[in-house]
Amino acid sequence: MSSKIKRILVSQPKPSSEKSPYFDLAEKHKLKLDFRPFIKVEGLTAKEFRASKINLADYIAMIFTSRTAVIHFFRLCKEMKISVIDDWKYFCVSESIALYLQKYIVYRKRKIFYGNGKFDDLLKLIKKHKQEIFLLPASTTSKKNIPQKLKKLGIDFTRADMYKTVSDDLSDLSDVDYDVLVFYSPSGIQSLIKNFPDFNQNKTRIAAFCHTTHKSVKDAGLRLDIKVPQPNAPSMSMALDKYIDEHNKKCRK
Question: CA 253, CA 249: separation in Å to the nearest integer?
């Protein structure tokens, strides 16, 4: 008979807010819940970026889809001695990303536009400035859907890879002997295999978010036990709650 689920490892940083649904989940099911990022972001060096032949000074409109993109854009500007121009326009997916610009520019009176968190919403604003030449700071592993949407609208833009996602060193983990391992990206699965090449799944359940991560689990020869999102459980915490409820009920019988 299977034992109850008691230990879960989430391959992400620990939430900064106490209101995270993960903490409610742990309290409800009396779980030992650990957080450990399996991946980390590394910025490309100025030398590596120069190899792309992209001159940052040629652009006046920047598209930011994350804080990470903001960080590495301004880092490279500083390292390459590119002056930040007052006339630059900033198009951000969300207001929180737009406000984050305050770390690097005088926010007041700057040309800043932002959406509601969805790129399709931001596209409406970008379309109004279609005459501009846009720069899209990105990761080497960024999805292709955003460039595809820009191309479809006939936007003149250049994707500029400025950072990359790599496997973190997990030597501080003696093992990954948990009841459930939670993954949000293919990179997390790759890091698991790289750090633990002899990993044997056995009774460990794997929970994965989004179809690309689902595919990575299967491509690695692992078993996908908890597929997220689900029609009645769109978030990871909801899917785990549902799975644990059903599993632990069986264990009590």
Answer: 7
- 110 vs 84: CA distance, rounded Å: 12
Query: Residues, the chain, total?
Result: 253
Look at the block and give the residue holding tokens 């490309």.
44
Closest CA to 13 of 178, 182, 194: 182
The pTM score is: 0.76
Q: How many whole angstroms separate alpha carbon 145 and alpha carbon 136?
A: 13
Per DSSP, the three-state class of 111 is: strand
Give per-residue pLDDT as tens, 53-106. 999 999 999 999 999 999 999 999 999 999 998 899 999 999 999 999 999 988
Beta strand 157-167 pairing with 39-43 = antiparallel
Between 3.40.1190.20, 3.40.190.10, 1.10.10.10, 3.40.50.10090, what CATH number should domain 42-165 receive?
3.40.50.10090
What is the rounded distance in angstroms from the CA atom of residue 148 to the CA atom of residue 219?
26
Distance CA 158, CA 200 (A): 43
Can you read off the two tokens belonging to residue 146? 């955003």
Alpha carbons 8 and 176: distance in angstroms, whole number: 10
Distances (CA, A) of 71 to 42, 76, 109, 227: 11, 9, 21, 32
